[in-house]
Amino acid sequence: MKAMPAHPTGWIFDLDGTLTIAQHDFDAIRAELDIPQGEPILEYLARLPASASAPLHRRLDAIERELAASVRPQPGCAEMLAALAASGCLLGVLTRNTRENALYSLQRLGVSELFDPACVLGRHEAPAKPDPGGILNLLQRWQLAPNAAVMVGDFRFDLEAGRAAGVATIHFDPTGRVPWPELTDRSVRTLTELASVLRSAGAS
């Protein structure tokens, strides 16, 4: 574990399952795309010839667009993000989804005005997590050092990306089990709890 910055300026969020209530059935998506169970979807598609991967990418985009139409916010999402924005923090999203779906989801969540669209990075704007490229992109855009930012996510890819970029990591883990302690600097079970952490740290 590394020390959490006292007053992080840059906040980078995963989207699906972190800001939103998880609704992706990845096993069902793999089955529909004829991807072996247990294989990371994007990495599997990247290994295919372009002629084979292109229609699968189009279908994946469509599946995720359909899911975005019924997206629901995690409890406390809007209040937590508004508090961060009001305190002058910089907000970004780094998702393995597409930017278009992410922007649509943020609109559906009622928080799109809190994000600069240029700071919402999908799989076509940055290497897919766990690659740290998207985080490093945002740090450069914000002119922040890694020790001034945090990555918040619900899966190990989010935490691995944060570790590789040198930023602190917050695991959004509703189960409270903390399955990847070596990657987690702080764990919260709800975004309401995260907002409470921010208040106690004087960040909001």
Describe this structure in words.
The chain has two domains: 10-21 and 74-201, HAD superfamily/HAD-like (Rossmann fold); 26-68, Orthogonal Bundle (434 Repressor (Amino-terminal Domain)), CATH 1.10.260.80. The protein is 42% helix and 12% strand. It has helices spanning 26-33, 41-47, 50-68, 77-86, 99-109, 133-142, 156-165, 191-201, and strands spanning 10-13, 90-94, 120-121, 149-153, 168-172, 186-188. A six-stranded parallel sheet has the order 3-2-1-4-5-6, sandwiched between helices. The protein is globular and about 50 Å long.
Short description:
This protein is α/β, with parallel strands linked by helices and 204 residues long.
What are the defining features of this structure?
204 residues, alpha/beta, Rossmann fold, 434 Repressor (Amino-terminal Domain), 2 domains, 6-stranded parallel sheet
Strand/helix succession = EHHHHEHEHEHEEH
CATH superfamily membership of the largest domain: HAD superfamily/HAD-like
How many strands appear in the DSSP assignment?
Answer: 6
Give the strand order of the largest sheet, numbering strands 1, 2, ... along the chain. 3-2-1-4-5-6
CATH fold group of the largest domain: Rossmann fold
The residue ranges in which pLDDT falls below 50 over 5 or more consecutive positions are none
CATH architecture of the largest domain: 3-Layer(aba) Sandwich
